Amino acid sequence: MAGSAGRVVRRWYPNVLRRSLQVPALQLHVSKTAMRASQKDFESALSQVKLLKDPGNEVKLKLYALYKQATEGPCNTPKPGVFDLINKAKWDAWNALGSLPKETARQNYVDLVSGLSSSSDSSSQVKPEADRKQPGYETLVVTSEDSITKIMMNRPAKKNAMTTQMYNEIMLALKAASKDDSAITVLTGNGDYYSSGNDLSNFTDIPPEGIEEKAKSGAILLRDFVDCFIDFPKPLIAVVNGPAVGISVTILGLFDTVYASNRATFHTPFSHLGQSPEGCSSYTFPKIMGPAKAAEMLIFGKKLTAAEACAQGLVTEVFPDSTFQKEVWTRLKAYSKLPPNAMRISKQVIRNREKEKLHAINAEESRVLQERWLSDECTNAVMNFLTRKAKL
Ligand SMILES: CCCCC/C=C/CC(=O)SCCNC(=O)CCNC(=O)[C@H](O)C(C)(C)COP(=O)(O)OP(=O)(O)OC[C@H]1O[C@@H](n2cnc3c(N)ncnc32)[C@H](O)[C@@H]1OP(=O)(O)O
């Protein structure tokens, strides 16, 4: 019992409050007298409390006061000093119960917990992902939970290759996430790949105005897409669940944190495809890993393992694939509880001095690519893939 009530306190209270509101093991031991009238109800309320969502500080103080009154009787400890704000609030709440009998306090505690349980019954259930899924996306699964918005690329049969529709949906999802009440945002992939990069069939859908118009609209889409990452205001985390190719790799330089499974690889075969770097990688990669290592990736298409990408600073941390999801989401849930405004402002301070430069680089990379897409080198490479003559 003592252990389970201890867990309640750990789960509910934000760090500062939690440290101060910790109920010592001694206080968690329910005395024999206190248990006489409604021992079972009280015990079950004590364990029920740990399943509830955070009810807010006011209710937590009430619960604390009733618990103390039920187990120790009226408050007779010295009043904490005026600057000991949290202990003073606890003391005030307990002291306000005056000479309320232990049995009544116990009953009130049980009633309060039962009221909280019924009001949070529906929300305390873990809903299946399908129920939490935000509507309106065809190529993504977007969910928000625990102050984390997760944007999952969802074309596993095509290795999460990015179609025009997926670029547009990711932009929409990022814009929505920038305004929702989540603290952090995650991009990840469904299935064995993180993403195989640009869907090469994007190049086959030529409008009546011709190939030049296609290249022009592609460059605008690319520029808008990368701009969304440059401007994204909250901490943005990539959870790289498997191999990553092309643009899914280059934009990693614009994320705040990149976690990778040890199954992930990082590959930017631009020269093989007759193309050139995008996603601001012509700037971020040399800055992150130094010009020589960046050239090996961006010019020669060297594929990095997750460990190599981590050693070169592109990846924050690598996890064994068997425990990847568990370890990463535990970490992210803890981060998502940090004060959101502080995180947002810290990101602004880090990002703002480079924003203008990044936008200019993005514009230039998109302009160069627009030309590349019209080259024979690019056309042949794409045709070779689409006619199954070549893979990476
Ligand atoms: C607006 C425009 C912005 C443009 C921005 C520019 C970005 C540049 C880039 O991103 S460059 C990178 C482009 N990507 C590639 O060149 C990868 C091509 N794919 C492959 O080489 C391979 O598919 C693989 C190595 C990723 C995986 O090989 P594997 O043998 O494991 O699997 P399959 O080849 O059988 O793939 C399964 C099906 O998925 C289709 N597919 C995979 N990747 C892409 C892709 N990038 N574009 C289109 N289709 C892709 C593949 O064709 C299979 O489909 P099928 O089952 O219908 O045959």
Automatic annotation (TrEMBL):
Entry's Gene Ontology molecular function annotations: delta(3)-delta(2)-enoyl-CoA isomerase activity; fatty-acyl-CoA binding
Compartments where found: Mitochondrion; Peroxisome matrix
Catalysis performed (reactions): a (3Z)-enoyl-CoA = a 4-saturated (2E)-enoyl-CoA; (3Z)-octenoyl-CoA = (2E)-octenoyl-CoA; (3E)-tetradecenoyl-CoA = (2E)-tetradecenoyl-CoA; (3E)-nonenoyl-CoA = (2E)-nonenoyl-CoA
GO cellular component: mitochondrion; peroxisomal matrix
E.C. designation(s): 5.3.3.8
InterPro entries: Acyl-CoA-binding_prot_CS (IPR022408), Acyl-CoA-binding_protein (IPR000582), Acyl-CoA-binding_sf (IPR035984), ClpP/crotonase-like_dom_sf (IPR029045), ECH/Chromodomain_protein (IPR051053), Enoyl-CoA_hydra/iso (IPR001753), Enoyl-CoA_hydra_C (IPR014748), FERM/acyl-CoA-bd_prot_sf (IPR014352)
Pathway recorded for this protein: Lipid metabolism; fatty acid beta-oxidation
Keywords for the protein's UniProt record, in alphabetical order: Acetylation, Isomerase, Mitochondrion, Peroxisome, Phosphoprotein, Transit peptide
Annotated region described as Disordered, given as residue ranges: 116-135
Any Pfam family matching the protein: ACBP
EC class name: isomerase
SUPFAM superfamilies: Acyl-CoA binding protein, ClpP/crotonase
All copies of domain ACB, residue ranges: 38-122
Function per UniProt: Able to isomerize both 3-cis and 3-trans double bonds into the 2-trans form in a range of enoyl-CoA species. Has a preference for 3-trans substrates.
UniProt similarity note: In the C-terminal section; belongs to the enoyl-CoA hydratase/isomerase family.
Protein known as: Enoyl-CoA delta isomerase 2
Organism: Panthera pardus (Leopard)
Protein's gene: ECI2
